[in-house]
C-alpha cells in the first residue's frame, strides 16, 4: 500500500462490502471456529486423561497453549517469506488446504486415543495459523483504503472473537457428544471439523488475487538468522515496534484470560465444567464489540488515542473481576448467582476494553508498514506476540502452582501489570489521548460527517486553512485527523492557568495580534518551521469567529507560513455549525437552546493547493468547499412546504401575515386557510395531473395563501407578471403549459388582458367551501402532529431537486425566459438570508415586491412562511403614502426594495411612517450614495446594497449592517459594493473573453457557484448551457472582488458599448451625468434618475452612445462640456445630437430600468440616421 493511503496502483480498490473482503471475513470466521473447536475438544479429553494419570488437569491448558503458540516462534521467517514472495491469496488458500489435512490427522489421533498425538496436531494447527496470519493481516490494507482500515480491522476482530466463542462452545458440545475420550460418535466430530474446513477452503477461493509484494525474495535457509533479521527490521521502525509490543501485551492478557477462565469458573465461582462457557462467551463477545466500536470511533482514520482508554478499561475491569470472584466463601443461591452475573458483566467490559486497546494498534501496524516488507514486519510482530503468549503457558502454572494464586488474583495481577503500560502509553501519546478524549466530548454534542478526509497528507508538513464558525472549530478539526495538528491560537489562551498545560501538550503556537509586527512574524516563523519539519499546522485565516456565518476576509500572514516551502495548503470548510450554541447565531454565544441533539455537522477537506499565488486563491478554495458542503446537505434537507407547516405552528397564535386591505392571519390561520384553499382547488378547479398553475395576484394575504396552498398540494405556482402585455404573458403561459390562472375579479378589472388559459376567480369559490372543509382543515391544523400531516399531504415525497416555481426574467435586456427554481435553490437562499440578517420574531417585513419578482418570491413569501418574522403586504410598491401608513401601523422593521422605489418614499413618506424601520435591503440596480444618505437623514436607517439575479434564487451577496451582525473588527458594510457572498455561495472573476481567473481588484466577468444556481431555463437547454458552465453561473455583470472579499459591480456586459475597439461603460457615464444634473435641480426632483445611457448601431464606430433623459435645464452642449470637465475620455462623451428627451424613464414592474425599452426609444429615434 502506498504511503498516501491508497492501495497500490496495480490493485483496484475494494470496499468493506466487496466480495474479496467478505470472503476474507468468512475464511477467518470458519478458520477460527475450527481452531477453537478442535482445541476445546482436545483440552477436555486431555484433562480427563491427565486426571486418570494423577496429573494436574490444568496442566493440559498450559500444554495446549504452548503447543499452539510455539510454531509462531519457529515459523516467523517462513511466514514472512510466503506472505511477501507469493500472492497473499495463494498463501491463504494453501493454508486452508492444510487445515483440511490437519483435521483428518486430528480425527485419526482422537480415534487412536494418543494424548500427545493430539497435542502434536494442536502444534500443526499452530504452524498453519502462523503461516496464515501474516497473509491474512497483510491482505487487509491491500483490499481496503486507509479510511477503512480501522473499521475493517474492527470487523475482522469481531469475526475472530465471535468465531472463537462459537468454536469454544462447539468444542465443548463435541466433547459432550463424544466424551470421555472423544471416540464415542466420532463421526459427529469428523463431519463438523472437516465440513467447516472444506467450506472455509471454498470461501478462500473467492478472495481476489493480489500481486506478490516481493516475488524475488529469497528462501530463508537459516531460520534463526532470518528471524533475527526480521526482528531487526522491526526494531529499526520504532513506531511499529511500539505498536507490536502493545499488540503482544494484548495477546498476553488475552491468552492469560482465556486459560484463566476455566479455573475462575470451576474454582472461584464453583461452577460445573459444562456451565463455564458463558464466561468465555461474554469475554470474546466483549472483545468483538470493542473491536467494532474501535473501528467506528476511529472515524475513518487510524486513531491511537483510543488505546489509553482501552488500557484504563482493562485495569478497572480486572480489579472488578477480582472483587467479584475473590469471595470464595459465598454461599450458594442468590449471592452465587449475583457473583456469576457480576463476573459476566466485568468480563464483557474487559473484552470491550481489550478490543479498544488492540484494534487501533493493529490498524497502525498495517498502515505504517510498507507494502514491500509488510509480510516480514507482520511475521516479526507475530513472533513477538506469540512469544508473549508462550510466556503465558509457562507463567500460568507458576502463578497457580508455586505462587498459589487463585484465578481472581490472576485477574488482579493482570490489572496491576497494565498500570505501567497505561502510564507509558499516555506519556508516549499525550496528544493522541487528549485528541481522542476531545473526540468523545465533541461527538456527544455533534454528529460529524467527514468529507475528503483523504486530502489530509499522512506524512509531511501542510498548512490547514479553515473558516471559523464557532468556539469548537479547533477541537473538531483536531479530532478529524490521526495526526497531531498544531494550531495558531491567541497568546492569552496559552497563559490561562486552566489551558496552559493543554496548549503546551498539543504544541499550540501562540500568536498575539496586538503584540506588534515582530511578535506576529515570530509566531508565523514558528508555524513555518513546524510545517518544514513535517508537521500539520492549522490557522483560522479570518482571525476571529464569524458574526454572520459569511466567510470573512483572510489575513495575508498565512502566505508567510508556506512561502519558500513545498508544503501544500489544505482548505477546510466547517459546515452547519452556524446555529449551534458555540456560534454567534442569534448574536450571542452559549445562551441559546441547541436546535438538535446531537447536532449534525460536516467537515469538508479540499484538495491540496500547491504554491498558491495569493491569499485570495486560498479563500476562493475554502468558499468553493462551502458550495460543495451545501450540495451535500441536499439529501437531508427539509423542503419548504414542510418548513412552512412547522414554523407557522410555532407561532400558532401570533400575527403572521397582513395586508393593506385589513386582512390578517396568525400562523395557525395561515395553515388553516391554506389547507381549506388546497381542498377547494383540488376538488373544484385543478386536475390531479395539473402541475403548473398560474397566479395573477399582487402581493397580499390572498397571494400568500394561494402560493402556500399550491405548494402543499405539490404543484408549482407560477406568479405571472401583471405589468407586461397579454402577448408576453401568454408566451409565459404556453411555455409552462398552464391550464388555469388563479386571480380575482378586482385584479382583472384593472388589467386589459386576454389570456390563453382558463381564468379562475377566487372570489367565486368562497361559496363552495363546505363545513367538512373547515372542520377537517381545522383538525389538521390544530390537532394532528406535523409529521402525520406531512405524510397525509404527501409532502415527504417532495425531493430537494423538485421544482418550487418558475419565475420569468423581467426582460430588461431581452425576451423573458422561464427560470426553474427548485426547493433546494430557494430553501438554501432563505437559510442564507436569515442567517446573515439575524431575523427574529420581533421583525416585520414591509412586503412591497411582487411575487413574480425573484426577491419578492424568496424574501416576501418563503422567508416569511418558514421563519419567525411577520410580514405586511401592499399591492403596489409605488403607493408611497399607503405603504408609509402600513409600515407605521404594523411597526415594520425591514424593507426590501429597489433604489427607484426609495426615491418615491423619500418624497411622500414621513419620518413617523418609517420610524421602526432599521433594515433596508436594496437590489436590482446600483444604490446611489445620495439616495442612501438622504434616506438615512430622513428615516434614520441607511439602506444597504445587495446583489442577486433571478437565476440565482436570487440573493448572491449582501452588506450586513453592524446592528444585524454583532460585528467587531470585521466590517460588514463597504459602500459602493454589494457585500460578501452569503454562506454557501462562491464568487469569482474571470476574463470575459478567455475565461481565465483574474486576481484581486481586477474587473472582469462575475461568475457565481452555489446551491442557489437555477436548475435551468424552461425548455431552453442551449441557453442554459451558455450561462451555466461547470456549475458556475455567468451573470453577465462586470465586477471586481477586493482584498477583503467584497464584490463591486461595475456594469453589465450588456451595458457596455464597443466603440472604435474600446469597451465604454454606460454606468460610468450615467454616474457623471447624475452628479452634475442633480446640482441644478430642486430638492423634490434631486432623487430622480434624470438620464440614462444606451446605444444604437453605427457603421463607422460600431456603436453610438445615446442619452435618454427627462426635461433638463441644461442644453446637450453644456452637458457634454460638463462631461469633459469631469475627466471622461472623449470616447465616453456622447455627441450633442445624441440626446433624446422623454417624459418618463422606462421602468419595469420590478423597479429595474427597462433597458430593452430604453434601447427601443433610441433605435426608433436614431437608427435610420445611424445606419444611413
UniProtKB/TrEMBL annotation:
Cytoplasm keyword on record: no
Domain of life of the source: Bacteria
Phospholipid/glycerol acyltransferase domain sequence ranges: 462-577
SMART domains, per the entry: PlsC
Record-linked SUPFAM superfamilies: Acetyl-CoA synthetase-like, Glycerol-3-phosphate (1)-acyltransferase, MFS general substrate transporter
CDD domains, sorted: LPLAT_AGPAT-like, MFS_MefA_like
Example of a GO MF term: acyltransferase activity
Pfam families the record matches: Acyltransferase (PF01553), AMP-binding (PF00501), MFS_1 (PF07690)
Keywords: Ligase, Membrane, Transmembrane, Transmembrane helix
Transmembrane segments: 21-39, 59-79, 155-175, 187-207, 239-261, 276-297, 304-325, 345-365, 377-399, 419-441
Protein family per UniProt: Belongs to the ATP-dependent AMP-binding enzyme family.
Record NCBIfam families: PRK08633.1
Name the UniProt record assigns to this protein: Bifunctional protein Aas
Amino acid at each position: 500500500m502506498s504511503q498516501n493511503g491508497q492501495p497500490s496502483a496495480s490493485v483496484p480498490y475494494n470496499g468493506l462490502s466487496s466480495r474479496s473482503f467478505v470472503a476474507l471475513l468468512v475464511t477467518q470466521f470458519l478458520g477460527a471456529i475450527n481452531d477453537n473447536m478442535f482445541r476445546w475438544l482436545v483440552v477436555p479429553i486431555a484433562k480427563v486423561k491427565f486426571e486418570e494419570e494423577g496429573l494436574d488437569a490444568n496442566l493440559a491448558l498450559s500444554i495446549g497453549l504452548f503447543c499452539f503458540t510455539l510454531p509462531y516462534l519457529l515459523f516467523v521467517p517462513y511466514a514472512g517469506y510466503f506472505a511477501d514472495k507469493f500472492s497473499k491469496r495463494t498463501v491463504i488458500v494453501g493454508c486452508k488446504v492444510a487445515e483440511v489435512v490437519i483435521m483428518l490427522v486430528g480425527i485419526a489421533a482422537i480415534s487412536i486415543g494418543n494424548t500427545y498425538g493430539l497435542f502434536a496436531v494442536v502444534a500443526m494447527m499452530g504452524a498453519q495459523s502462523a503461516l496464515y496470519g501474516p497473509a491474512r493481516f497483510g491482505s487487509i490494507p491491500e483490499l481496503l483504503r486507509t479510511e477503512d482500515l480501522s473499521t475493517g480491522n474492527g470487523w475482522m476482530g469481531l469475526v475472530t472473537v465471535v468465531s472463537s466463542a462459537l468454536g469454544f462452545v462447539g468444542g465443548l458440545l463435541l466433547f459432550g457428544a463424544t466424551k470421555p475420550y472423544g471416540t464415542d460418535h466420532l463421526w459427529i466430530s469428523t463431519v463438523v471439523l472437516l465440513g467447516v474446513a472444506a467450506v472455509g477452503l471454498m470461501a478462500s477461493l473467492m478472495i481476489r488475487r493480489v500481486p506478490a509484494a516481493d516475488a524475488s525474495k529469497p528462501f530463508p535457509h537459516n531460520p534463526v538468522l532470518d528471524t533475527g533479521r526480521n526482528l531487526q527490521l522491526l526494531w529499526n521502525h520504532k513506531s511499529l515496534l511500539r505498536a507490536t509490543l502493545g499488540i503482544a501485551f494484548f495477546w498476553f492478557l488475552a491468552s492469560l484470560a482465556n486459560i484463566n477462565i476455566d479455573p475462575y469458573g470451576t474454582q472461584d465461582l464453583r461452577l460445573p465444567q459444562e456451565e463455564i462457557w458463558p464466561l468465555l462467551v461474554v469475554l470474546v463477545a466483549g472483545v468483538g464489540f470493542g473491536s467494532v466500536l474501535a473501528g467506528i470511533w476511529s472515524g475513518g482514520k487510524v486513531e491511537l488515542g483510543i488505546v489509553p482508554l482501552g488500557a484504563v478499561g482493562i485495569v478497572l475491569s480486572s480489579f472488578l473481576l477480582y472483587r467479584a470472584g475473590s469471595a470464595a466463601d459465598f454461599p450458594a443461591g442468590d449471592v452465587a448467582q449475583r457473583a456469576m452475573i457480576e463476573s459476566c458483566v466485568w468480563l464483557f467490559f474487559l473484552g470491550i476494553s481489550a478490543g479498544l486497546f488492540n484494534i487501533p494498534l493493529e490498524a497502525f501496524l498495517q498502515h505504517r508498514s510498507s507494502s514491500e516488507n509488510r509480510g516480514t514486519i507482520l511475521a516479526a510482530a507475530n513472533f513477538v506476540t506469540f512469544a508473549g503468549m508462550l510466556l503465558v503457558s509457562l507463567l500460568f502454572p507458576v502463578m497457580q502452582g508455586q505462587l498459589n494464586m487463585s484465578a481472581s488474583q490472576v485477574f488482579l495481577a493482570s490489572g496491576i501489570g497494565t498500570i505501567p503500560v497505561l502510564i507509558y502509553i499516555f506519556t508516549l501519546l499525550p496528544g493522541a489521548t487528549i485528541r481522542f478524549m476531545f473526540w468523545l466530548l465533541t461527538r456527544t454534542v455533534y454528529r460529524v460527517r467527514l468529507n475528503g478526509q483523504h486530502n489530509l497528507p499522512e506524512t509531511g508538513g501542510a498548512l490547514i486553512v479553515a473558516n471559523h464558525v464557532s468556539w469548537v472549530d479547533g477541537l473538531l478539526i483536531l479530532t478529524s485527523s490521526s495526526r497531531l495538528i498544531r494550531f495558531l491560537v491567541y497568546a492569552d489562551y496559552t497563559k490561562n492557568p486552566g489551558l496552559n498545560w493543554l496548549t503546551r501538550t498539543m504544541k499550540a503556537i501562540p500568536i498575539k495580534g496586538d503584540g506588534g509586527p515582530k511578535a506576529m512574524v515570530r509566531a508565523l516563523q514558528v508555524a513555518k518551521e513546524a510545517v518544514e519539519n513535517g508537521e500539520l499546522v492549522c490557522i483560522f485565516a479570518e482571525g476571529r469567529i464569524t458574526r454572520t456565518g459569511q466567510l470573512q476576509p483572510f489575513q495575508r500572514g498565512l502566505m508567510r507560513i508556506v512561502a519558500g516551502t513545498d508544503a501544500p495548503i489544505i482548505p477546510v470548510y466547517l459546515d452547519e455549525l452556524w446555529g449551534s450554541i458555540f456560534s454567534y447565531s442569534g448574536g450571542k454565544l452559549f445562551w441559546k437552546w441547541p436546535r438538535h441533539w446531537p447536532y449534525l455537522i460536516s467537515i469538508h477537506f479540499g484538495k491540496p493547493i500547491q504554491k498558491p499565488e495569493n491569499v485570495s486563491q486560498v479563500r476562493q478554495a475554502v468558499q468553493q468547499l462551502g458550495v460543495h458542503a451545501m450540495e451535500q446537505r441536499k439529501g437531508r434537507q427539509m423542503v419548504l412546504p414542510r418548513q412552512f407547516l412547522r414554523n407557522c405552528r410555532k407561532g400558532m397564535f401570533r400575527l403572521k401575515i397582513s395586508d393593506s386591505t385589513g386582512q390578517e392571519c396568525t400562523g395557525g390561520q395561515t395553515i388553516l386557510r391554506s389547507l381549506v384553499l388546497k381542498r377547494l382547488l383540488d376538488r373544484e378547479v385543478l386536475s390531479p395531473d395539473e402541475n403548473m398553475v398560474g397566479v395573477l395576484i399582487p402581493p397580499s394575504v390572498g397571494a400568500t395563501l394561494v402560493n402556500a396552498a399550491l405548494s402543499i398540494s405539490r404543484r408549482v405556482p407560477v406568479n405571472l407578471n401583471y405589468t407586461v402585455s397579454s402577448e408576453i404573458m401568454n408566451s409565459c403561459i404556453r411555455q409552462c403549459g398552464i391550464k388555469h390562472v388563479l386571480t380575482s375579479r378586482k385584479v382583472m378589472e384593472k388589467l386589459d388582458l386576454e389570456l390563453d388559459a382558463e381564468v379562475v376567480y377566487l372570489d367565486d369559490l368562497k361559496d363552495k367551501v363546505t363545513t367538512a372543509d373547515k372542520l377537517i382543515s381545522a383538525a389538521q391544523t390544530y390537532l394532528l402532529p406535523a409529521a402525520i400531516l406531512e405524510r397525509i399531504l404527501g409532502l415527504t415525497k417532495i425531493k430537494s431537486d423538485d421544482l418550487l416555481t418558475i419565475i420569468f426574467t423581467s426582460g430588461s435586456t431581452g425576451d423573458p425566459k422561464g427560470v426553474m427554481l427548485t426547493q433546494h435553490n430557494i430553501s438554501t437562499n432563505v437559510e442564507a438570508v436569515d442567517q446573515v440578517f439575524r431575523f427574529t420574531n420581533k421583525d416585520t417585513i414591509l412586503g412591497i415586491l411582487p411575487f413574480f419578482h425573484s426577491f419578492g418570491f424568496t424574501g416576501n413569501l418563503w422567508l416569511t412562511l418558514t421563519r419567525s418574522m411577520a410580514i405586511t403586504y401592499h399591492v403596489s410598491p409605488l403607493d408611497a403614502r399607503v405603504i408609509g401608513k402600513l409600515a407605521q401601523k404594523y411597526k415594520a422593521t425591514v424593507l426590501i426594495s429597489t433604489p427607484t422605489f426609495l426615491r418615491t418614499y423619500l418624497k411622500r413618506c414621513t419620518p413617523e411612517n418609517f420610524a421602526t424601520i432599521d433594515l433596508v435591503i436594496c437590489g436590482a440596480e446600483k444604490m446611489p450614495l445620495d439616495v442612501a444618505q438622504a434616506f438615512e437623514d430622513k428615516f434614520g436607517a441607511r439602506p444597504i446594497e445587495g446583489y442577486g439575479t433571478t437565476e440565482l434564487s436570487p440573493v448572491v451577496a449582501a452588506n450586513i449592517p453592524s446592528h444585524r451582525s454583532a460585528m467587531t473588527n470585521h466590517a460588514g458594510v463597504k459602500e459602493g459594493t454589494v457585500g460578501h457572498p452569503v454562506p454557501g455561495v462562491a464568487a469569482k472573476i474571470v476574463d470575459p473573453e478567455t475565461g481565465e481567473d483574474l486576481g484581486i481588484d481586477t474587473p472582469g466577468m462575475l461568475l457565481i457557484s452555489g446551491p442557489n444556481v437555477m436548475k435551468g431555463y424552461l425548455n431552453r437547454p442551449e441557453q442554459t448551457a451558455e450561462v451555466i458552465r461547470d456549475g458556475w453561473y455567468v451573470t453577465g455583470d462586470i465586477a471586481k472582488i477586493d482584498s477583503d472579499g467584497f464584490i463591486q459591480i461595475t456594469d453589465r456586459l450588456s451595458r457596455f458599448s464597443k466603440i472604435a475597439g474600446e469597451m465604454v461603460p454606460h454606468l460610468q457615464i450615467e454616474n457623471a451625468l447624475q452628479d452634475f444634473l442633480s446640482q441644478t435641480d430642486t430638492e423634490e426632483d434631486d432623487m430622480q434618475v434624470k438620464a440614462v445611457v444606451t446605444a444604437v448601431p453605427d457603421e463607422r464606430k460600431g456603436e453610438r452612445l445615446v442619452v435618454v433623459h427627462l426635461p433638463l435645464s441644461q442644453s446637450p452642449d453644456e452637458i457634454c462640456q460638463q462631461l469633459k470637465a469631469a475627466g471622461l475620455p472623449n470616447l465616453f462623451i456622447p455627441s450633442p445630437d445624441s440626446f433624446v428627451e422623454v417624459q418618463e424613464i422606462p421602468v419595469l414592474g420590478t423597479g429595474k430600468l427597462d433597458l430593452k425599452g430604453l434601447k427601443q426609444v433610441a433605435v426608433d429615434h436614431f437608427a435610420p440616421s445611424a445606419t444611413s
